[in-house]
Amino acid sequence: LRRRSLAARVQEVAESVLLGDEFDKPAAHLPHGGTQWLEIGVGVGRRAQIMLLHEPTAGMTPGETMMTAGLVRELVETQGVAAIVVEHDMGFVRALDAEVTVLHLGRVIAEGSMSQIEQDAQVRAVYLGEEVA
User: Fold this and answer.
1) 51: Cβ–Cβ under 8 A, 6 or more apart, which residues?
2) What is the pLDDT at residue 1?
3) Residue 60 Rama label (left phi>0; alpha psi -120 to 50; beta)
């Protein structure tokens, strides 16, 4: 890419991952959420078709967490990115509004929508300590 078109592409990616206002800051000066969004932006800039996001909201404020959920949903819906998310924040998982797969000891124990997962007896037993009838 030419220098001018490269700069335009970088600005476009920054705006697409919630960093438009932080565009001129060095990465070391970004807030925690900003560094996570920058990592996602690297994938967007490389036109990744699959993104593996491990605990993408760790350490984020509730507002940043919801903004991140919106960002991931938008990447999936508008850019066709497949997102594999490993996350313990169930509010974030719920906000993604996606199919969920629950693992326990390396094995799949449930799959479905978040509302289905929340009602699954095995999931409730393993993760909430409830007795299975």
Assistant:
1) 40, 43, 75, 81, 82, 83, 84
2) 59
3) beta
Q: Return d(Cα 125, Cα 30) in angstroms, integer.
A: 40
Residues 48-73 have pLDDT tens digits of 999 999 999 999 999 999 999 999 99
Amino acid (one-letter) located at 70: G
pTM of whole model > 0.85? Answer: no
41: three-class secondary structure by DSSP = helix
Mean pLDDT by 10 residues, the chain (133 residues): 80 85 84 88 93 94 95 94 94 95 95 94 89 74
Q: What structural domains and CATH numbers belong to the chain?
A: 1-98 (3.40.50.300)
> Which residue pairs, CB below 8 angstroms and at least 24 apart, start in 63-66?
64/31, 64/32, 64/33, 64/36, 65/89, 65/91, 65/92, 65/95, 66/92, 66/95
The Cα–Cα gap between 51 and 95 comes to 18
96 is written with which tokens?
């993604």
